[in-house]
Amino acid sequence: MNYDNIILIGNAGVGKSTLINAFLGDNRAETKFGIEGTTKKLSIYESDKIPFRMVDTVGFEPSTINIPFKKNKAIIAVEKWVKKQNEAGRRDSQINLIWFCIDGTSGRLFKETLNNFEKATRAWKSVPVIIVITKSYSEPDKEKNLEMINEALDKNKKLKERVKAIIPVIADIFYINDDSYAPTSGIDELLDKTNKLMPESRELAKKDFDEFKLESKKKRANLIVGAATTSAAIVAAVPIPIPDTGILTAIESFEILNIAKIYEIKDNEDSKIFIKQIISAGAVGAIAKGILSALKPLIGVGTVLNVIVATTIVGALGEVSITAFEQIYKGEKSIDDIDWIKKLLDNVDTNVIIEKIKGISNKLTESNPKEIAKIIYNEIFQNANQYNKK
């Protein structure tokens, strides 16, 4: 396969490796927290599903740009790689696109960072640029950062001509605290814009691109299910009787609404009614009652039961939501078909879920609710098949 090359440039720790993992849908690039950046040298990432090669650079440090006659090490590393590819006779060594990654939490540095980036990449002045604002955790911050970057670009006309998009992104689930999180966002927009900016000769065919995008959506939706099950476990560990499953409603609502966003479900009256049907099934409906009645004799009473039941209910609802919204996204079902979602919910085979719980019950004696949620999610719901009755 011939590849188009996307160069990622950005300060150390900006989140380039996390962004690569989100874009390719696979944990190939090492990520970690800390003062130093993760990528110590130029690293190449490819996929057999899309013709995009990700070239992850070492940290792009603005302080080195203004030192006379000293070229930034990230730029040098890319130039050496291109030269080596050309010497090896590769025809796909051309740089086709630059993702310039800026940390959304460092707004005051935007102007200086953009100016230094423009100086450092003048050798690639014909290459289009997407500015990716990483760690864009809140809507007010997104709007403020977009405004500041546009103001800075208005004062740097050369760079402005090269910038084809400014996209705020959350590349991975961000936990605000133990029981609340910010879901991923911006990945679909980045996928779409990247594909459109590639040379027409190798722009990913619509069918292949749609399949890759759908797979990416499902992986990100599953991340939300994992985060929601953790939140449910922590809330359920509080000594409140689990039959009052209404305590899970807020968690379920947030989970389902964010899965709906991933599948581009419009926020209108039809979607609100549709989503309400799913939430009702978890809060007080057949799914909740079936799981509770089956697990109580198996687990007994107490905190562990609460955590297991809450995690299982939220996980099951998440999987049903993925199934439903995926079919709507693909045009196979309609958001206004309430009878269909009712049948889908009624058709969830809780017996299959219960049997799986029984199979791992020996692992669920752990008192830490987050560990219980992790086990249930990893072994029952992650990449789960549909739990529909035959």
Describe the structure.
Helix content is 52%, strand content 11%. It starts with a strand and ends in a 9-residue tail after the last helix. Helix 7 runs antiparallel to helix 8 (249-262), helix 7 (206-236) runs antiparallel to helix 14 (369-381) and helix 8 packs parallel to helix 11 (303-329). The strands form two sheets. Strands 2-3-1-4-5-6 form a six-stranded mixed sheet, with helices on both faces. A two-stranded antiparallel sheet has the order 7-8. With 390 residues, it is α/β, with parallel strands linked by helices. The protein folds into two domains: 4-204, P-loop containing nucleotide triphosphate hydrolases (Rossmann fold, 3-Layer(aba) Sandwich); 209-381, no CATH class. The chain contains 14 helices and eight strands. It has helices at 16-24, 73-87, 110-120, 139-154, 157-162, 187-197, 206-236, 249-262, 269-283, 286-299, 303-329, 338-346, 350-359, 369-381; strands at 4-10, 43-45, 52-56, 95-103, 129-134, 163-168, 174-177, 180-182.
What's a concise summary of this model?
This protein is of the alpha/beta class and 390 residues long.
Draw up the topology in text.
Layout: E1 4-10, H1 16-24, E2 43-45, E3 52-56, H2 73-87, E4 95-103, H3 110-120, E5 129-134, H4 139-154, H5 157-162, E6 163-168, E7 174-177, E8 180-182, H6 187-197, H7 206-236, H8 249-262, H9 269-283, H10 286-299, H11 303-329, H12 338-346, H13 350-359, H14 369-381
Helix pairs in contact: 7-8, 7-11, 7-14, 8-9, 8-11, 9-11, 9-12, 10-11, 10-13, 11-14
